[in-house]
Design goal:
Blueprint: E1 24-25, E2 28-29, H1 30-46, H2 50-70, H3 74-83
Antiparallel strand pairs: 1-2
């Protein structure tokens, strides 16, 4: 059913780039960055382990940035995988 008729005027709608680009914060998904920062702050401030908190943040953020380069929606996929793990188990 290949139809070569032109589209009527006003049929196409522009899609703004901000609606299609993932929201990244420091190179990683927003949710992952907030969780990393919160856990690092809990280690640094709550347990008074500043070095451990800083190292945790750098390593966790690096892993999230690496994963976000491969798939910007990896955090959503990971959450869905964990939530439905029992459903797809053998």
């Amino acid at each position: 059913m290949a139809d070569n008729r032109p589209l009527p005027p006003g049929y196409s709608v522009p899609v703004h780039r901000s609606l299609t680009v993932p929201i990244l914060l420091a190179g990683a998904p927003r949710l992952a960055t907030i969780v990393n920062g919160t856990l690092a702050a809990a280690l640094g401030i709550g347990l008074q382990l500043w070095g451990v908190g800083l190292v945790f943040w750098v390593v966790a953020q690096g892993i999230c940035v690496f994963a976000a380069r491969r798939d910007p929606q990896f955090a959503d996929v990971l959450i869905r995988h964990i939530r439905t793990r029992g459903y797809y188990a053998c």
